[in-house]
Specification:
By secondary structure, the chain is an alpha/beta fold. It has 2 domains: about 90 residues, Rossmann fold (3-Layer(aba) Sandwich), CATH 3.40.50.10860; about 130 residues, 3-Layer(aba) Sandwich (Rossmann fold), CATH 3.40.50.720. Helix content is about 40%, strand content about 15%. It contains 10 helices and 11 strands. The protein has a 6-stranded parallel beta sheet with strand order 1-11-8-7-5-6. Strand 5, helix 7 and strand 6 form a beta-alpha-beta unit. The longest helix has 23 residues. The mean pLDDT is about 95.
Protein backbone atom coordinates (compact mmCIF):
# COMPACT_ATOMS: atom_id res chain seq x y z
CA UNK A 1 0.00 0.00 0.00
CA UNK A 2 1.37 3.39 -1.02
CA UNK A 3 2.17 6.04 1.61
CA UNK A 4 -0.09 8.94 2.52
CA UNK A 5 1.30 12.10 0.90
CA UNK A 6 1.93 14.91 3.40
CA UNK A 7 1.30 18.03 1.33
CA UNK A 8 3.21 21.07 2.51
CA UNK A 9 1.31 23.11 -0.08
CA UNK A 10 -2.03 22.27 1.59
CA UNK A 11 -0.80 22.69 5.18
CA UNK A 12 0.88 26.02 4.34
CA UNK A 13 -2.40 27.22 2.83
CA UNK A 14 -4.27 26.29 6.04
CA UNK A 15 -1.75 28.11 8.23
CA UNK A 16 -1.86 31.22 6.05
CA UNK A 17 -5.64 31.38 6.39
CA UNK A 18 -5.24 31.13 10.17
CA UNK A 19 -2.60 33.89 10.13
CA UNK A 20 -4.77 36.16 7.96
CA UNK A 21 -7.55 35.93 10.58
CA UNK A 22 -5.05 36.50 13.40
CA UNK A 23 -3.58 39.60 11.72
CA UNK A 24 -7.08 41.01 11.12
CA UNK A 25 -7.87 40.60 14.82
CA UNK A 26 -4.54 42.16 15.87
CA UNK A 27 -5.22 45.21 13.71
CA UNK A 28 -8.89 45.64 14.68
CA UNK A 29 -8.69 44.85 18.40
CA UNK A 30 -5.19 45.98 19.33
CA UNK A 31 -4.12 48.36 16.55
CA UNK A 32 -1.07 46.15 15.94
CA UNK A 33 -0.02 45.45 12.35
CA UNK A 34 2.86 42.96 12.02
CA UNK A 35 5.79 44.63 10.23
CA UNK A 36 8.39 42.73 8.20
CA UNK A 37 11.35 44.21 6.34
CA UNK A 38 13.34 42.16 3.84
CA UNK A 39 16.75 43.59 2.99
CA UNK A 40 18.27 42.58 -0.33
CA UNK A 41 21.85 43.57 -1.19
CA UNK A 42 22.67 43.17 -4.89
CA UNK A 43 20.71 41.41 -7.61
CA UNK A 44 21.27 37.67 -7.18
CA UNK A 45 18.37 36.23 -9.26
CA UNK A 46 17.47 33.49 -6.74
CA UNK A 47 17.55 36.03 -3.88
CA UNK A 48 15.35 38.47 -5.83
CA UNK A 49 12.84 35.65 -6.35
CA UNK A 50 12.86 34.62 -2.66
CA UNK A 51 12.51 38.18 -1.36
CA UNK A 52 9.70 38.96 -3.80
CA UNK A 53 7.81 35.82 -2.67
CA UNK A 54 8.25 36.74 1.00
CA UNK A 55 7.05 40.31 0.44
CA UNK A 56 4.05 39.17 -1.58
CA UNK A 57 3.01 36.67 1.11
CA UNK A 58 3.39 39.28 3.86
CA UNK A 59 1.15 41.73 1.99
CA UNK A 60 -1.47 39.03 1.32
CA UNK A 61 -1.65 38.38 5.07
CA UNK A 62 -2.13 42.07 5.88
CA UNK A 63 1.39 42.87 7.12
CA UNK A 64 3.20 46.17 6.88
CA UNK A 65 5.74 44.77 4.39
CA UNK A 66 8.86 46.64 3.27
CA UNK A 67 11.31 45.38 0.66
CA UNK A 68 14.51 47.38 1.08
CA UNK A 69 16.68 46.80 -2.01
CA UNK A 70 20.29 47.97 -1.74
CA UNK A 71 23.08 48.07 -4.34
CA UNK A 72 25.63 45.24 -4.45
CA UNK A 73 28.45 47.63 -3.49
CA UNK A 74 26.75 48.71 -0.23
CA UNK A 75 29.39 48.78 2.49
CA UNK A 76 29.21 46.52 5.54
CA UNK A 77 29.12 49.63 7.75
CA UNK A 78 26.11 51.05 5.90
CA UNK A 79 24.27 47.71 6.06
CA UNK A 80 24.84 47.56 9.82
CA UNK A 81 23.47 51.13 10.14
CA UNK A 82 20.40 50.10 8.13
CA UNK A 83 19.79 47.14 10.44
CA UNK A 84 20.18 49.40 13.47
CA UNK A 85 17.53 51.73 11.99
CA UNK A 86 15.04 48.86 11.71
CA UNK A 87 16.00 47.52 15.16
CA UNK A 88 14.80 50.87 16.56
CA UNK A 89 11.65 51.12 14.40
CA UNK A 90 8.59 50.14 16.51
CA UNK A 91 6.54 49.41 13.37
CA UNK A 92 8.99 46.70 12.26
CA UNK A 93 8.74 43.40 14.16
CA UNK A 94 10.76 41.15 11.87
CA UNK A 95 14.04 41.82 10.05
CA UNK A 96 15.22 39.47 7.33
CA UNK A 97 18.55 39.96 5.53
CA UNK A 98 18.54 37.80 2.41
CA UNK A 99 21.58 35.56 2.04
CA UNK A 100 24.03 35.16 0.40
CA UNK A 101 25.53 38.61 0.85
CA UNK A 102 28.30 40.03 -1.38
CA UNK A 103 31.77 38.73 -0.47
CA UNK A 104 32.95 42.01 1.08
CA UNK A 105 30.31 41.72 3.84
CA UNK A 106 30.70 39.45 6.89
CA UNK A 107 27.40 37.52 7.04
CA UNK A 108 27.80 36.57 10.71
CA UNK A 109 28.43 40.16 11.74
CA UNK A 110 25.27 41.22 9.91
CA UNK A 111 23.05 38.44 11.29
CA UNK A 112 24.33 39.03 14.83
CA UNK A 113 23.47 42.75 14.53
CA UNK A 114 19.74 41.99 14.25
CA UNK A 115 17.80 42.44 17.50
CA UNK A 116 17.13 38.83 18.69
CA UNK A 117 13.49 39.79 19.32
CA UNK A 118 13.19 40.75 15.60
CA UNK A 119 15.20 37.78 14.32
CA UNK A 120 12.25 35.99 12.71
CA UNK A 121 14.61 33.60 10.90
CA UNK A 122 15.67 32.26 14.32
CA UNK A 123 19.41 32.14 13.53
CA UNK A 124 20.80 34.68 16.02
CA UNK A 125 23.01 32.93 18.64
CA UNK A 126 20.69 34.22 21.37
CA UNK A 127 17.72 32.49 19.70
CA UNK A 128 19.74 29.32 19.11
CA UNK A 129 20.59 29.33 22.83
CA UNK A 130 16.94 29.89 23.77
CA UNK A 131 16.01 26.91 21.59
CA UNK A 132 18.58 24.64 23.27
CA UNK A 133 17.33 25.41 26.79
CA UNK A 134 13.66 25.04 25.81
CA UNK A 135 12.78 28.73 25.92
CA UNK A 136 12.60 29.48 22.18
CA UNK A 137 10.92 32.67 21.05
CA UNK A 138 11.33 31.81 17.37
CA UNK A 139 12.12 28.51 15.66
CA UNK A 140 14.17 28.46 12.44
CA UNK A 141 11.60 28.43 9.66
CA UNK A 142 12.33 25.18 7.80
CA UNK A 143 12.57 23.03 10.98
CA UNK A 144 9.47 24.81 12.30
CA UNK A 145 7.67 23.80 9.10
CA UNK A 146 8.81 20.19 9.48
CA UNK A 147 7.51 20.00 13.04
CA UNK A 148 4.20 21.56 12.01
CA UNK A 149 3.79 19.00 9.20
CA UNK A 150 4.41 16.16 11.68
CA UNK A 151 1.94 17.57 14.21
CA UNK A 152 -0.83 18.25 11.70
CA UNK A 153 -0.39 14.83 10.10
CA UNK A 154 -0.67 13.22 13.57
CA UNK A 155 2.67 11.60 12.83
CA UNK A 156 4.62 12.21 16.04
CA UNK A 157 4.03 10.57 19.40
CA UNK A 158 5.92 10.80 22.68
CA UNK A 159 9.02 8.61 22.60
CA UNK A 160 9.12 8.36 18.81
CA UNK A 161 12.44 7.22 17.37
CA UNK A 162 13.53 10.06 15.07
CA UNK A 163 16.56 9.91 12.81
CA UNK A 164 17.82 13.11 11.16
CA UNK A 165 20.18 12.75 8.20
CA UNK A 166 22.20 15.97 7.98
CA UNK A 167 23.71 18.28 10.60
CA UNK A 168 23.44 21.76 9.08
CA UNK A 169 22.80 24.79 11.27
CA UNK A 170 19.75 25.58 9.13
CA UNK A 171 17.91 22.24 9.30
CA UNK A 172 19.63 19.22 10.86
CA UNK A 173 20.80 20.59 14.21
CA UNK A 174 17.73 22.75 14.98
CA UNK A 175 15.13 20.10 14.10
CA UNK A 176 16.99 17.59 16.28
CA UNK A 177 16.99 20.08 19.16
CA UNK A 178 13.29 20.92 18.66
CA UNK A 179 12.11 17.31 18.62
CA UNK A 180 14.06 16.35 21.74
CA UNK A 181 12.38 19.07 23.86
CA UNK A 182 9.82 18.29 26.56
CA UNK A 183 6.95 19.76 24.56
CA UNK A 184 3.95 19.06 22.33
CA UNK A 185 5.01 17.59 19.01
CA UNK A 186 8.41 16.64 20.45
CA UNK A 187 9.50 14.30 23.31
CA UNK A 188 11.32 12.17 20.74
CA UNK A 189 14.49 10.11 20.97
CA UNK A 190 16.66 11.72 18.31
CA UNK A 191 19.68 10.40 16.41
CA UNK A 192 21.63 12.65 14.03
CA UNK A 193 23.49 11.03 11.12
CA UNK A 194 25.99 12.75 8.83
CA UNK A 195 28.85 12.17 6.38
CA UNK A 196 31.02 10.56 9.07
CA UNK A 197 28.34 8.19 10.38
CA UNK A 198 29.75 4.66 10.12
CA UNK A 199 26.64 2.64 9.37
CA UNK A 200 23.86 5.02 8.40
CA UNK A 201 21.49 2.29 7.31
CA UNK A 202 21.59 0.69 10.79
CA UNK A 203 20.33 3.99 12.21
CA UNK A 204 17.76 4.87 9.54
CA UNK A 205 16.14 1.42 9.77
CA UNK A 206 15.25 2.18 13.42
CA UNK A 207 13.44 5.40 12.59
CA UNK A 208 9.72 5.83 13.20
CA UNK A 209 10.28 9.28 11.65
CA UNK A 210 13.10 9.81 9.15
CA UNK A 211 14.03 13.41 8.31
CA UNK A 212 16.44 13.70 5.41
CA UNK A 213 18.39 16.92 4.79
CA UNK A 214 21.54 15.57 3.18
CA UNK A 215 21.69 17.71 0.03
CA UNK A 216 22.28 14.63 -2.13
CA UNK A 217 19.69 13.34 -4.64
CA UNK A 218 18.19 9.97 -3.64
CA UNK A 219 20.63 9.61 -0.72
CA UNK A 220 18.03 7.50 1.11
CA UNK A 221 16.81 4.39 -0.69
CA UNK A 222 13.98 1.98 0.14
CA UNK A 223 16.28 -0.57 1.81
CA UNK A 224 17.22 2.12 4.38
CA UNK A 225 13.62 2.74 5.50
CA UNK A 226 11.62 0.79 8.07
CA UNK A 227 8.19 -0.47 6.97
CA UNK A 228 5.57 2.08 8.07
CA UNK A 229 8.01 4.93 8.82
CA UNK A 230 7.10 8.57 8.27
CA UNK A 231 9.60 10.17 5.86
CA UNK A 232 10.22 13.92 5.61
CA UNK A 233 12.35 14.87 2.60
CA UNK A 234 13.93 18.31 2.95
CA UNK A 235 16.16 18.08 -0.13
CA UNK A 236 15.60 20.12 -3.28
CA UNK A 237 18.16 19.14 -5.91
CA UNK A 238 18.17 20.38 -9.51
CA UNK A 239 19.00 17.30 -11.56
CA UNK A 240 18.29 18.56 -15.07
CA UNK A 241 15.85 20.46 -17.26
CA UNK A 242 12.74 19.57 -19.20
CA UNK A 243 12.75 20.16 -22.99
CA UNK A 244 10.94 23.43 -22.18
CA UNK A 245 13.85 24.51 -19.95
CA UNK A 246 12.07 24.03 -16.60
CA UNK A 247 14.22 22.69 -13.75
CA UNK A 248 13.69 19.04 -12.79
CA UNK A 249 13.73 18.78 -8.98
CA UNK A 250 14.52 15.70 -6.96
CA UNK A 251 14.58 15.15 -3.21
CA UNK A 252 17.14 13.46 -0.98
CA UNK A 253 14.86 10.39 -0.83
CA UNK A 254 14.13 7.91 -3.63
CA UNK A 255 10.46 8.91 -3.53
CA UNK A 256 8.95 6.32 -5.89
CA UNK A 257 10.55 3.37 -4.10
CA UNK A 258 10.29 4.67 -0.53
CA UNK A 259 6.58 5.59 -0.78
CA UNK A 260 5.81 1.87 -1.13
CA UNK A 261 7.32 1.23 2.34
CA UNK A 262 6.56 4.41 4.27
CA UNK A 263 3.21 5.13 5.96
CA UNK A 264 3.51 8.83 5.07
CA UNK A 265 5.97 10.88 3.01
CA UNK A 266 6.50 14.46 1.80
CA UNK A 267 6.90 15.02 -1.94
CA UNK A 268 9.49 17.20 -3.70
CA UNK A 269 8.40 19.74 -4.72
CA UNK A 270 5.32 20.54 -2.62
CA UNK A 271 6.46 19.10 0.70
CA UNK A 272 8.67 21.00 3.16
CA UNK A 273 9.44 23.86 0.73
CA UNK A 274 6.10 25.73 0.88
CA UNK A 275 6.22 25.68 4.69
CA UNK A 276 9.36 27.80 5.10
CA UNK A 277 7.96 31.21 4.08
CA UNK A 278 4.70 30.43 5.92
CA UNK A 279 6.54 29.80 9.21
CA UNK A 280 8.53 33.01 8.68
CA UNK A 281 5.17 34.81 8.64
CA UNK A 282 4.06 32.94 11.76
CA UNK A 283 7.25 34.05 13.54
CA UNK A 284 6.61 37.67 12.49
CA UNK A 285 3.08 37.61 13.92
CA UNK A 286 4.54 36.20 17.13
CA UNK A 287 7.16 38.99 17.22
CA UNK A 288 4.42 41.61 16.82
CA UNK A 289 2.46 40.12 19.71
CA UNK A 290 5.60 40.00 21.88
CA UNK A 291 6.36 43.66 21.15
CA UNK A 292 2.80 44.63 22.08
CA UNK A 293 2.87 42.60 25.30
CA UNK A 294 0.02 40.38 24.11
CA UNK A 295 -0.31 36.75 25.24
CA UNK A 296 1.41 34.18 23.03
CA UNK A 297 0.08 30.77 21.98
Amino acid sequence: MSAKIISGTEVAKEIREELKAEVKELVEKHNVQPGLVTILVGENPASVSYVTAKGRTAKELGFNSIQDDQPGDLSEEDLLKLIDKYNKDPKIHGILVQLPLPKHIDENKVLYAIDPDKDVDGFHPVNVGRLVIGEAKFYPCTPYGIQELLIRAGAIEDGAEVVVVGRSNIVGKPIAMMLVQKAKGANATVTVCHTRTRDMKAHTLRADILIVAAGVPKAVTADMVKEGAVVIDVGVNRVGKTPEGKAILEGDVDFEAVKEKASAITPVPGGVGPMTITMLMKNTVRAAKMAAGLPLD
